[in-house]
Amino acid sequence: xxxxxxxxxxxxxxxxxxxxxxxxxxxxxxxxxxxxxxxxxxxxxxxxxxxxxxxxxxxxxxxxxxxxxxxxxxxxxxxxxxxxxxxxxxxxxxxxxxxxxxxxxxxxxxxxxxxxxxxxxxxxxxxxxxxxxxxxxxxxxxxxxxxxxxxxxxxxxxxxxxxxxxxxxxxxxxxxxxx
Length: 179
What we know:
Low-confidence stretches: 175-179
Largest sheet: 5 strands, parallel
Strand content: 5-15%
Number of strands: 5
Order of helices and strands: EHEHHHEHEHHEH
Helix content: 40-55%
CATH architecture: 3-Layer(aba) Sandwich
CATH class: Alpha Beta
Radius of gyration: 16 Å
Shape: globular
C-alpha cells in the first residue's frame, strides 16, 4: 500500500495538538485533513458538549465509533481523533487497517496549561479539572501506547517541530522519501 492510500491517525489526550499538528501535517504531506469530532458534530448537528449533556458519554462513544468507521475507509488523510477513541478497541482495529497510528503524548502539567480556559471539553467541566485530566490520562495512557506505532512528545516541541519529526518518522516507516 502506497503512502497516499494510507491514513495518518493522530491519537492522544485533548489538548495534545491533534488538530493543530494534523492540519499542518496534512498540508505538508499533501493529504486531506479530517477531525472526527468535527465530522460527528456536522453529522449530528450538535456540539460534542451538547451531545454529552443531553445523551451522555455512552451515546457519544457509539456515534464516535460510527464516524471512525466511515472516515477510516477512505485513504490519503490525516485524521485527528477524539481523545477517547482508544476506549473502544474496534476503533483502533478499523483505524489501523489503512492507517499509521501516532500518539501525541503531552504531560499532564502541559495539558492543564493548554486547557485551563477551554470551556468546550465536557470531560473536564468539573470542580477539579486537573485531577480529572490526570485520571483520564492514567486510564488512557496504556491504551494510547498499545495502539500507536509512533509516539512523539508534543510538550517540548513547537507544532512545526512536531510536524518535522512526524514527516521523518512516517517516511522512514513507509520506505518513502520526500523529493
